[in-house]
């Protein structure tokens, strides 16, 4: 099968990147009455743009309901976007725009984009053995069968730190951390280029979280993987991410290289998220701002800057004029009217 396009599909920022997302939108209609009249929209994802260089990790962070899962599932085309482009540099086909592909084309691309889920308890079929779970993508895609399939699954288990003897066991025999390793082995079975990790450690004990993050980092280096790593907590993405994007009510509000974002945040929401990261020294924490109030409702967001009802720095302009995402420093974008004048607190060096 070949992909035919009238014009070559290539994003403007192709050089060095694996994924280029432009103006991505997902609106869910809100309907009422017998005729299901559309009375509004949930703007789950509202004009999100980012790029991920090959072999790097973008951490996508924000409170519950800000659109992280919707963004990650759109990239894997679990459903169609309302608008926007998702350019992906497939190793066989070159640049493709995911929303434009047919289901047959998507089947081919999906081998190279995999997902690791949040809940290692519900994401594995309890009636399948590890051989079936990890081997399924290989069998379904006709990559291996019989003895060769067994050998490849045993090797995948070894790669994620599980014993190959576990092949014929069922998921219930394993702990949460081990189950997440099984999910990772399955995601890696077809040697994907991009792995979308949606809160992969949120359901795990803190002690197991660090081990799983280290494993993901080792695997990235070994297999030259590119990660989109979703979390609600900045501390989880700090060490694994090369870049961090902060999301609030369907929009990106700040994005920069990880160290830059942690040391010099330019958006008050990022400052507040950083303040809620647990600190070994409680004195440092007490001086910091704590996030107050609820996340805005994406079906009825506030006027002006969506963050203004919770922002300690809000001025009158913030209530009426929506700030645009602007480059404030080279490679560091933020959407705040006051980004240049505020001196926000990052984490201490
Ligand atoms: N199928 C749907 N129909 C209507 N609204 C939806 C649908 N799916 C998600 N939403 C809404 O879109 C918004 C974004 O949801 P999403 O699951 O992407 O957030 P999230 O950042 O992943 O949150 P969490 O941290 O809780 O996982 C939420 O307000 C959610 O209620
Ligand atoms: S634009 Fe105004 S309300 Fe929004 S984050 Fe900046 S200072 Fe706060
Ligand atoms: Mg989510």
Strand content: 15-25%
Determine the mean pLDDT.
91
The value of Rg in angstroms is 21 Å
Largest sheet entry: 8 strands, mixed
User: What CATH architecture of the largest domain would you give?
Assistant: 3-Layer(aba) Sandwich
CATH C-level of the largest domain: Alpha Beta
Compute the number of strand runs: 12
User: Shape from CA axes?
Assistant: globular
CATH fold type of the largest domain: Rossmann fold
Contiguous helical run count: 11
Determine the CATH superfamily of the largest domain: P-loop containing nucleotide triphosphate hydrolases
The total tally of domains equals 2
Strands, helices and their partners?
Layout: E1 17-32, E2 37-53, E3 57-61, H1 68-75, E4 83-90, E5 94-97, H2 103-110, E6 113-116, H3 130-140, H4 146-159, H5 176-188, E7 194-198, H6 206-223, E8 226-231, H7 234-238, E9 243-248, E10 251-257, H8 258-263, H9 268-275, H10 282-286, H11 316-320, E11 326-329, E12 332-334
The structure holds adenosine-5'-triphosphate, iron/sulfur cluster (SF4) and magnesium ion.
What can you see in these coordinates?
With 349 residues, the protein is α/β, with parallel strands linked by helices. The protein folds into two domains: 17-248, Rossmann fold; 265-277 and 288-349, no CATH class. It is built from eleven helices and twelve strands. The strands form two sheets. Strands 6-7-8-3-9-10-12-11 form an eight-stranded mixed β-sheet, with helices on both faces. A hairpin with a 2-residue loop joins strand 11 and strand 12. Helix 3 packs across helix 4 (146-159), helix 3 (130-140) runs parallel beside helix 5 and helix 4 (146-159) crosses helix 5. The protein is globular. Mean pLDDT is 91; it is low at 1-6. It binds adenosine-5'-triphosphate (ATP), iron/sulfur cluster and magnesium ion. Iron/sulfur cluster binds at residues 267-268, 305, 307-308, 311, 313-314, 318, 323, 336-338.
């Amino acid at each position: 099968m070949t992909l035919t396009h009238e014009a070559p599909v290539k994003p403007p920022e192709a050089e060095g990147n694996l994924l280029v997302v432009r103006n991505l939108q997902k609106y869910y209609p809100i309907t009422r009455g017998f005729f299901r009249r559309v009375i509004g929209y949930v703007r789950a994802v509202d004009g999100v743009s980012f790029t991920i260089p090959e072999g790097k990790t973008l951490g996508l962070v924000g409170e519950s309901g800000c659109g992280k899962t919707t963004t990650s599932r759109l990239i894997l085309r679990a459903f169609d976007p309302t608008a926007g482009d998702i350019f992906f540099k497939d190793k066989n086909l070159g640049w493709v725009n995911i929303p434009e592909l047919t289901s047959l084309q998507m089947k081919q691309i999906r081998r190279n984009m995999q997902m690791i889920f949040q809940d290692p308890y519900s994401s594995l079929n309890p009636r399948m053995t590890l051989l079936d779970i990890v081997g399924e993508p290989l069998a379904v895609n006709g990559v291996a069968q019989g003895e060769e399939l067994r050998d490849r699954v045993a090797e995948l288990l070894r790669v994620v730190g599980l014993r190959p003897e576990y092949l014929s066991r069922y998921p219930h025999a394993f702990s949460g951390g081990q189950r997440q390793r099984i999910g990772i082995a399955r995601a890696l079975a077809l040697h994907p280029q991009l792995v979308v990790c949606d809160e992969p450690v949120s359901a795990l004990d803190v002690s197991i979280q660090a081990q799983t993050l280290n494993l993901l980092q080792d695997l990235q280096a070994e297999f030259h993987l590119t990660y989109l790593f979703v979390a609600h907590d900045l501390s989880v993405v700090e060490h694994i991410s090369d870049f961090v994007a902060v999301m609030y009510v369907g929009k990106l509000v700040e994005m920069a290289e990880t160290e830059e974002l942690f040391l010099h945040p330019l958006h008050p929401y990022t400052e507040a998220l950083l303040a809620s990261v647990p600190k070994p020294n409680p004195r440092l924490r007490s001086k910091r701002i704590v996030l107050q109030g609820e996340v805005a409702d994406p079906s009825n967001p506030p006027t002006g800057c969506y963050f203004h009802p919770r922002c300690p720095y809000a001025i009158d302009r913030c209530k009426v004029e929506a700030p645009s995402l602007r480059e404030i420093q080279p490679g560091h974008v933020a959407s705040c009217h006051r980004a240049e004048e505020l001196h926000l607190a990052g984490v201490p060096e």
